[in-house]
Amino acid sequence: MRRKQVWYRSAAALIIALIVGIALFQQPGINWLYAADQKEDGKVVPGTASPQPSSGNSTVVASSAPAASVQNPTTAAPPAAPPASQPAATSAPAPQSAGAAKSGLPEEAGFRVIAESSVLKLWVHDATAHFKVENKQSGQVWRSYPNPEQWAKETITGTWRNNLLSPIMLEYIDASNSKSQAKTISWTEDKGVLEGFQTTPNGFKVVFNFTGTQFKIPVEVRLQDDYVDTVIVDPDIKEGKLSLLNLKLYPLLGAEAYNDKQEGYLFVPDGSGALIRFKPNKANDKSFYRANVYGPDSGFFNETTARNPLRIPVFGLKSGAQGLVGVMVSGEEYGKVFASPNGAFGQFNWVTTEWQYRIKFFQNTSKKAQTGFFTYSKDRFTVPERKTRYYFLAPDKSDYVGMAETYRTYLVKDKSLKPVQPKSGEVPIYIDIIGADIKKGLLWDKYLKGTSTAEAIDMIKSLTARGLKNLTVQYAGWQQDGYSSHGGLFPVDSRIGGNDGMQQFIQHAHSQQIPVYLTANYTLNNNGRDRFWPMFDGLRDLAGKVIEFENYANHEMTTLVSPIFTANVAQKDLGSYKALGADGIYFNEGIGQYLNSDYNNSYRASRSEVLKSQQAILKQTKDTLGSVHAENANFYALNEVNHIHRLADTYSYDIFVDESVPFTQIVLHGLITYTSEWSNLREQYRTDFLRSIELGAYPAYVFTSAPSGTMKGAYSVWYYSMNYRDWEASAAEEYKRFNEALGDVQDKLIIGHRTLAPNVKETTYEGGKTIIVNYNEQEFTNGSIRVPAQDFIVGKRGTQR
Fold this sequence. Notes:
- This protein is an alpha+beta fold.
- It is 19% helix and 28% strand.
- It has twelve helices and 44 strands.
- Strand 11 and strand 12 form a beta hairpin.
- Helix 8 packs parallel to helix 9.
- The longest helix has 24 residues, at 2-25.
- The model is unreliable at 1-98 (pLDDT under 50).
């Protein structure tokens, strides 16, 4: 009897609780998760019905962000997909089931198809603006949120658990508080709401309203034939009292956890390219990868590191047979690549664009002493739109080779890159000739002559006699006072032959079908020529300080030149290059390589404006002289650059990065020629030679006619062993091997690259030619394949995957 009374009372209490719960659910003042929100006086009021648009083809919805602790009380099937030939539907908002599951993930039943192409299908979740992309042929699905099958194993808690669930997260600062520190918040954690959700003919657009921090971020997602663009509309961003620093949009798109049954990795464009493999994080390492596209900006504070600058606005992710590659196609000069391996922020491996809106700088409070404080730029970096394009790869193209091929196709299709036209069946060989440099003397600097123009004629005669037939010369240190003198390059220093001597050299080179490029650095000025005044014409950071750096050889401070001043001087000099007969300019240490904002009021230019000015001077140079070379160039220069010299061929050796891959070389080969480090300055002579063969890089040497050791103590050209006579025999032997490997594939694309065994690499070209490189000190054998120790063999397709 007592048990029945307890049961009756418990049942009665449960019924009362349900009645109260239903009554509370109907109260308009409570922000229930799945209730639609309505705007009043420009604000979103939760708990009321969403108004329908009076006209037009768009669905307008404002809804609450999902809370991880609330479960959807109802279920419903998603609306039917629109026909592929029609624009996305104008249907009513998704029903109440379109919220979050108990896990905090968006409810799978809440997704609906809003756009289709011949290849892909785009699904959207109205309540969160999360989306899915489905390959219609393979059935593979990529999600903008964590994989539900793996989320149950996620152990991270608190703020970062919500961050991983969020379609957008940002970093901000309270600029009104000098002691404020940068903080990260996600739309989910900030109890965000959606405003103005609208379907479009090929996707949707929405405003993410961060109700706590008061940021409003307008976003569009656009489906095209084989890719999806995620777009931030910069001019329409709204800030409250806080200042936006960085933003990640759909950061977990394609994210996957470690699976010991399949291969997986993150690709980052560090150096030639690098892989961060999916693996257990046994050491509880919290390291993550974060680097600026196109390198640091000297207009702001930069930490000194040995890391390679990022030259390519690309990243990728592979998990088993599923892969994607992200390409920043607009606003990338303000982008970073952010990669989070397993253990850094939860159990998932993810990589994304981090968009930068403000950067820290040091504000001096004293001109004499290095006293001051760090703060952030007041104005937000703004471009018309910031766009990351995601290509979703077929199962057989899901690796880094497939990523590189996809990016290469984008460059050909969207950037109009054309295949190279080989000059002959022999590969090109690049000879950098050093004219002169200076070193510190007792009373004044001493001039060190490396190669006069007359000696340069003898040099190329000797080299061609050795069988080096397809030479290209890049003449450096020809300016007044040699290589270390920056500013007022013309005329050619009389001590090496003057303008007349250079003309004679170029004419002789042309008689042998050898093009000549003059090496120039317009980024520095240390002699005051070109009417340069550091105080008036130097690059300034946001604090107004003229940027200088110290030459460690002579402790001289050298001023960075305002980029617009640089462009003006380079443009003025084009006529002088043409008068000498030069085939082009080799821009080193500057144009095409470094990208800095300038806060000099006379030449003020944003990073975007400097990028455009560099592209303009590269184009003018090409139009005037016919060709342009650049040192380890950023990829915004590709349209105008014919050759990239000393292209990075390895990575930065971060401890959490697992291996280097030739992503950049796969992209470029057959479109633009490139070299690696000078052959006579290799750190590991045989290994670096083999790497050039593996990567399809052409040979390059830096030579003087003067004896080795002449340049000892020089301010810049301090390299040893540059006398061409010491190297021409070995250069001729290597040149034969380069031709054996690469002579007949100069205009061919790389279509395959893989590891056959530890330290054994195979590269495959169009047409089926394969090159297998064995870096080991023992012979490599595999069936009928035999590769001698520290050597390579050439074959046909058959060992290709």
